[in-house]
Amino acid sequence: MKEILTNNRDETQKFAVRVANFAKPGLVITLNGDLGAGKTTFTQGFARALGVTSRVKSPTFNIMNMYTARCFPIYHFDAYRLEESGAQDQGFEDYVGTDGVTLIEWPQYMKDLLPNNRLDITFIRGEEDNNRKIKIKGIGDLKDLEAQI
Ligand SMILES: Nc1ncnc2c1ncn2[C@@H]1O[C@H](COP(=O)(O)OP(=O)(O)O)[C@@H](O)[C@H]1O
Ligand SMILES: [Mg+2]
Q1: Burial class (CB in 10 A: 0-12, 13-18, 19+), 125
Q2: Which residue did the predictor score with more confidence, 83 or 73?
Protein backbone atom coordinates (compact mmCIF):
# COMPACT_ATOMS: atom_id res chain seq x y z
CA MET A 1 0.00 0.00 0.00
CA LYS A 2 1.25 3.42 -0.95
CA GLU A 3 -0.25 6.70 0.19
CA ILE A 4 -0.08 10.19 -1.26
CA LEU A 5 -1.74 13.49 -0.39
CA THR A 6 -3.14 16.00 -2.86
CA ASN A 7 -4.12 19.57 -2.05
CA ASN A 8 -6.45 20.32 -4.96
CA ARG A 9 -8.06 18.75 -8.02
CA ASP A 10 -5.09 19.60 -10.24
CA GLU A 11 -2.76 17.57 -8.04
CA THR A 12 -5.14 14.63 -8.17
CA GLN A 13 -5.17 14.89 -11.96
CA LYS A 14 -1.37 15.09 -12.08
CA PHE A 15 -1.30 11.89 -10.05
CA ALA A 16 -3.73 10.39 -12.60
CA VAL A 17 -1.29 11.27 -15.39
CA ARG A 18 1.38 9.31 -13.53
CA VAL A 19 -0.89 6.29 -13.30
CA ALA A 20 -1.81 6.66 -16.98
CA ASN A 21 1.84 6.02 -17.87
CA PHE A 22 1.20 2.41 -16.87
CA ALA A 23 -2.01 2.04 -18.85
CA LYS A 24 -2.28 -0.87 -21.22
CA PRO A 25 -5.14 -2.97 -22.59
CA GLY A 26 -6.61 -5.15 -19.87
CA LEU A 27 -5.69 -2.90 -16.95
CA VAL A 28 -8.50 -2.54 -14.42
CA ILE A 29 -8.47 0.27 -11.86
CA THR A 30 -11.00 0.26 -9.04
CA LEU A 31 -11.78 3.69 -7.59
CA ASN A 32 -13.13 3.74 -4.03
CA GLY A 33 -14.34 6.62 -1.91
CA ASP A 34 -17.45 8.57 -0.94
CA LEU A 35 -19.41 10.87 -3.19
CA GLY A 36 -17.23 13.86 -4.05
CA ALA A 37 -14.01 12.14 -2.99
CA GLY A 38 -12.37 12.57 -6.40
CA LYS A 39 -12.98 9.37 -8.40
CA THR A 40 -14.30 11.13 -11.49
CA THR A 41 -11.74 13.92 -11.18
CA PHE A 42 -9.02 11.26 -11.29
CA THR A 43 -10.64 9.59 -14.32
CA GLN A 44 -10.72 12.94 -16.17
CA GLY A 45 -6.98 13.44 -15.70
CA PHE A 46 -6.29 9.84 -16.60
CA ALA A 47 -8.37 9.94 -19.81
CA ARG A 48 -6.94 13.27 -20.92
CA ALA A 49 -3.41 11.92 -20.52
CA LEU A 50 -4.31 9.13 -22.94
CA GLY A 51 -5.66 11.50 -25.55
CA VAL A 52 -9.37 11.69 -24.73
CA THR A 53 -10.66 15.10 -25.78
CA SER A 54 -14.38 14.73 -24.99
CA ARG A 55 -15.71 15.67 -21.57
CA VAL A 56 -15.50 12.88 -19.02
CA LYS A 57 -18.34 12.82 -16.49
CA SER A 58 -19.70 10.27 -14.06
CA PRO A 59 -21.74 7.69 -16.00
CA THR A 60 -24.18 7.39 -13.10
CA PHE A 61 -27.29 6.82 -15.18
CA ASN A 62 -25.94 4.66 -17.96
CA ILE A 63 -23.43 2.84 -15.66
CA MET A 64 -20.70 2.88 -18.34
CA ASN A 65 -19.21 5.42 -20.72
CA MET A 66 -16.70 4.47 -23.37
CA TYR A 67 -14.04 6.89 -24.55
CA THR A 68 -11.74 6.67 -27.51
CA ALA A 69 -8.17 7.23 -26.39
CA ARG A 70 -5.02 7.23 -28.53
CA CYS A 71 -4.22 3.51 -28.41
CA PHE A 72 -7.19 1.68 -26.86
CA PRO A 73 -10.66 2.37 -25.52
CA ILE A 74 -11.31 3.51 -21.96
CA TYR A 75 -14.31 1.97 -20.19
CA HIS A 76 -15.49 4.13 -17.32
CA PHE A 77 -18.01 2.52 -14.97
CA ASP A 78 -19.98 4.07 -12.14
CA ALA A 79 -21.68 1.15 -10.42
CA TYR A 80 -23.46 3.26 -7.78
CA ARG A 81 -26.87 2.60 -9.31
CA LEU A 82 -26.29 -1.16 -9.30
CA GLU A 83 -26.39 -1.22 -5.50
CA GLU A 84 -29.71 -3.04 -5.37
CA SER A 85 -29.97 -4.73 -8.73
CA GLY A 86 -26.46 -6.14 -8.94
CA ALA A 87 -24.26 -6.37 -12.01
CA GLN A 88 -25.44 -9.70 -13.43
CA ASP A 89 -26.73 -10.23 -16.94
CA GLN A 90 -25.87 -6.80 -18.24
CA GLY A 91 -22.96 -7.81 -20.44
CA PHE A 92 -20.39 -5.76 -18.51
CA GLU A 93 -17.92 -8.65 -18.65
CA ASP A 94 -17.57 -7.91 -22.38
CA TYR A 95 -15.70 -4.76 -21.35
CA VAL A 96 -14.08 -5.15 -17.92
CA GLY A 97 -10.44 -6.13 -18.35
CA THR A 98 -10.68 -6.80 -22.10
CA ASP A 99 -9.19 -4.72 -24.92
CA GLY A 100 -9.18 -1.37 -23.13
CA VAL A 101 -8.42 0.18 -19.77
CA THR A 102 -11.30 -0.08 -17.31
CA LEU A 103 -11.92 2.34 -14.45
CA ILE A 104 -14.68 1.45 -11.98
CA GLU A 105 -16.25 3.85 -9.47
CA TRP A 106 -18.17 2.08 -6.65
CA PRO A 107 -16.50 -1.27 -7.40
CA GLN A 108 -18.16 -2.85 -4.34
CA TYR A 109 -21.32 -3.08 -6.45
CA MET A 110 -19.57 -5.01 -9.22
CA LYS A 111 -17.68 -7.45 -7.00
CA ASP A 112 -18.35 -10.51 -9.16
CA LEU A 113 -16.83 -8.87 -12.22
CA LEU A 114 -13.58 -7.64 -10.67
CA PRO A 115 -10.46 -9.43 -11.89
CA ASN A 116 -7.91 -10.80 -9.44
CA ASN A 117 -5.24 -8.52 -10.86
CA ARG A 118 -6.03 -4.87 -10.54
CA LEU A 119 -4.96 -1.50 -9.22
CA ASP A 120 -7.11 -0.40 -6.32
CA ILE A 121 -7.21 3.29 -5.44
CA THR A 122 -9.07 4.85 -2.50
CA PHE A 123 -9.82 8.56 -2.11
CA ILE A 124 -10.38 9.95 1.37
CA ARG A 125 -11.30 13.53 2.22
CA GLY A 126 -8.78 15.29 4.42
CA GLU A 127 -9.27 17.94 7.08
CA GLU A 128 -9.20 20.85 4.65
CA ASP A 129 -11.85 21.04 1.91
CA ASN A 130 -9.40 20.37 -0.90
CA ASN A 131 -7.18 17.77 0.76
CA ARG A 132 -7.43 14.18 -0.31
CA LYS A 133 -5.54 11.18 0.98
CA ILE A 134 -5.07 8.67 -1.85
CA LYS A 135 -4.24 5.05 -1.10
CA ILE A 136 -2.83 2.95 -3.92
CA LYS A 137 -2.75 -0.82 -3.77
CA GLY A 138 -1.65 -3.21 -6.48
CA ILE A 139 -3.56 -6.48 -6.22
CA GLY A 140 -2.37 -9.83 -7.58
CA ASP A 141 0.09 -9.49 -10.46
CA LEU A 142 0.00 -5.70 -10.06
CA LYS A 143 1.46 -5.81 -6.55
CA ASP A 144 4.70 -4.16 -7.70
CA LEU A 145 2.97 -1.42 -9.64
CA GLU A 146 2.15 0.73 -6.61
CA ALA A 147 5.83 1.27 -5.89
CA GLN A 148 6.51 2.40 -9.48
CA ILE A 149 3.80 5.05 -9.68
N1 LIG B 1 -7.58 17.20 -3.91
C2 LIG B 1 -8.70 17.00 -4.65
N3 LIG B 1 -8.77 15.96 -5.49
C4 LIG B 1 -9.88 15.72 -6.22
N5 LIG B 1 -10.99 16.50 -6.20
C6 LIG B 1 -10.96 17.58 -5.38
C7 LIG B 1 -9.83 17.87 -4.58
N8 LIG B 1 -10.10 18.99 -3.86
C9 LIG B 1 -11.33 19.35 -4.20
N10 LIG B 1 -11.87 18.53 -5.12
C11 LIG B 1 -13.24 18.66 -5.65
O12 LIG B 1 -13.98 17.55 -5.17
C13 LIG B 1 -14.92 17.15 -6.14
C14 LIG B 1 -14.69 15.70 -6.49
O15 LIG B 1 -15.76 15.29 -7.30
P16 LIG B 1 -15.74 13.96 -8.15
O17 LIG B 1 -14.41 13.75 -8.73
O18 LIG B 1 -16.92 14.03 -9.06
O19 LIG B 1 -15.99 12.88 -6.99
P20 LIG B 1 -16.53 11.39 -7.09
O21 LIG B 1 -16.46 10.94 -8.52
O22 LIG B 1 -15.62 10.63 -6.18
O23 LIG B 1 -17.93 11.42 -6.59
C24 LIG B 1 -14.73 18.06 -7.35
O25 LIG B 1 -15.66 19.11 -7.28
C26 LIG B 1 -13.31 18.57 -7.16
O27 LIG B 1 -13.11 19.84 -7.74
MG1 LIG C 1 -18.02 10.09 -9.78
Answers
A1: middle
A2: 73
Atom of ligand 1 nearest to the CA of 42: 17
Looking at ligand 1, which atom is closest to the CA of residue 132? 1
**Phi/psi at 57 (nearest 5 deg)?**
-135, 165
Instruction: Give the residue from 42, 49, 40 showing the smallest Cα distance to 134.
Output: 42
Which CATH number is 2-148 given? 3.40.50.300
Indicate if the pLDDT at residue 84 is higher than 80.
Answer: no
Q: What is the pTM of this model?
A: 0.97
Q: Whose CA is nearest to atom 13 of ligand 1?
A: 36
Cα–Cα nearest to 16, from 74, 72, 62:
74
Of 9, 60, 65, 123, the residue with max ligand 1 atoms within 8 A of its CB, to mutate for a pocket test, comes to 9
Distance 90 CA to ligand 1 centre (A): 29
DSSP β-ladder status, 73-78 and 132-139: unpaired
